[in-house]
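hey so u asked for the seq, here:
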Amino acid sequence: MLRAMLRDLRAHKGRIAMTLVAIVLGVGFVVATWVVSDSTAKSLAGADLRDDVGVSVQIADRGPELTPADLDRLGRIPGVANASGVVFGHAGLIGSDGKLISSRPDQAGTGWDSSARFDLVDGRAPVPGEVALGEQQARQAGRQVGDKTRVLLADGRSLEATVAGEFVYRPFDEPSPGVAFGDPGVLGDRFTRVELTAKPGANVDAIASAARGLVDPALRKVATGPQLVAEAQTRADASAQSVRESLLGFVAVALLAGIFVIANTFSMLVTQRTRQLALLRAVGASRRQVRRAVLIEAGVLGLIGATLGIALGIGICLLGLWLMRPEGQPTSFSVSPTSILVGYAVGVVVTMVAAYSSARRAAAVSPMAALRTDASFERRSLVTRTVLGLTLLAGGVLAVVLTLANNLSTTERLVAMGGGIVAWIGVLLLAPVLADLVLRPAGRLLSRWGGAAMRLGVRNSIRDSRRTAATTSALMVGLALVCAFATLGESTVSMLSSAIRGIIPASATVVESPTSGTPLGTDVLDKVRALPGVGNASADRYGSVKVTHNGSTSSTSLSAIEPDGVIKPEVISGTADVRQGAVVGENEAAMIGVGIGDQVTLQLDPVSSVTTTVVGLHRGTEGRPLFYIDVAAIPAKYRDTRVTTVYATGPDASAVRSSIEAAFADRPDVIVTDREGVIESATTSFQLILTLMYALFGAAIVIAAFGVVNTLALSVMERTREIGVLRAVGAGRPLIRRAIRLESVVICTYGGLLGILVGIAFGAVMQHAMFGQSLWEISVPYPVIATALIGMLIVGVLAALWPARRASRINILTAIATS
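ran it, structure tokens below
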């Protein structure tokens, strides 16, 4: 029995080729994801970790920096051979083209020392008046050992120094700096961390215990060297897991599309082999044997596809790492046994699960079917599937309707999102019924103008609604996700643009850092205020803080502004006067359960907090400050060091901008723009993320396109005799090819339209659940929709090329004789 099934599998290579493609693509995507995450972990954790630190004492959660007195006190702990203070600060490295190199200049500078933090790869250690550059930063800046370079400091001063050497940095948990000063005093006399080196034979745990007794545990973190190494490994594993989790969602979509394709393929294969299965039943094969044989056949295909998919995934990862490897940074490539096992598990299990329904149908074939020349399966009822689909659709819609309010709590947001997903599943289950409801009337209408080819194409596309639904479902999933995120993206861009226009006057000149959210130099605000023509200049001090209300603490974003400054939150309730208290975003207030008159505590760092009263609600959105408070309410140290944006106005807006541009012409760490420039900057990064999502979801569309080819090719095999009869009564080869192409276009267009409609609806639910905006306040992504429709037509035509050619070349006599 098994030998007969496997022999048939080998004899029909064309039947299995496209199924293997779907399996290979799905497995390749999974394995590539796993290998990327494994390689990420190895690159981070496999770096040359330091072993020279006995005990580290560092600031905790933006606490106050350590002082020279702290350094001296820690250095006197018994068993300590040496105490070294590590300082970090602002260092804007200017390249040979005059542009800023450091992406985060506020974290790019450190003081040189003799510790193992630095691995010198060229030149020598710097002395006062010199700097050493990170190897990667030196390449980007176009600097070599012996060159002069320019470095901008926090207060706007410019330092000219000689490049003495290049290094590779070996961090524990801090960002890798790009500039190391030969004179650490350039960055001040306060330290981010104190590193203690133990004497030979000294107990580092005892040193750590003594250090804890000398510092405030709420403000300082004390750890031994082995603990730091273990934490670095944990962070690397967490980073790898984060990469894996962020990509596995896209993998799941690709696999879902693959399941539709594989299930549809096996359903058609089993249908075509009805007589063969019936003969096996007639000569004594049991239902269990038939079912097991089909599942083994699926397992063999899954095993072959998984092997090819694993090779493809590893190849994709190797190519990606080679193309995107950061210059000057070591990159490791790792293929763990887990990634191989996952690839085989996905390939074999997914294929067998997809084929299970077909195996059951095969086992149900009656031996009497072998006596019929037109043996086929009885059409299965859609009643159960339709009822379940209607129930899920109604339940999902009801969940969304019950959460239509804008001020949603976290639970209500989850309910709304869950309702959208459930409704989507309902539409998938209703796909066969929808195909009948949509394609039959559309077919009658199109047939009036399309001639014989159109009538044949439309009729064939709806002759089996289950098959059409299975084929179009894969297309619908991919396109729906693209359109959903496009709708979310367009709506987000619209909300961000509206929020920025509601806060920043059109006439304002905006001064900000090249890197979003990075503090400007401490001299920028005062310098702008002193410029001629500037009537009003104020600042935005943006950052993340913890908010506590009724014993519950969560993260939020805060901006400290001047009450009479240029910018004011767009208030929808209460007052915008921050002198009276905090103005909170409407959705943020709903999520943390506060209203006007309630008190909240904003924790800026371990020793600095602000307790204030909510006096107004504004139209807040993600990416913009959710809390606005008076700058006078925050500690003095934040007023100058946390300025992220400066806004300036005056009687002549163009004169104000020209004056500011001239004042900062030699400062690449400062960008001068306007309100529209702020909008463009805020939305560009989001658009890049959406573009990446489109590319990843494109894998599902590619798999779905192969599914259309597969369906058409197998459908041609199934209709061999029918096509032969058409040719015998006068149908020419062009007519047959045109009919197959039109069938493909109808299937793809139907799947595309259904995916677009579902995607827009789900995108509306997403933006409503995520941002608390009205369900109807969406921006429809018309360019994406137009591209999707055109793309589906192209897919329809291309997918039909091979099946149409095959159909037109069928031998008439052989086809008529086919039983």
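Residues 514-669 form one domain. The first strand starts at residue 55 and ends at 59.
lmk if thats what u needed
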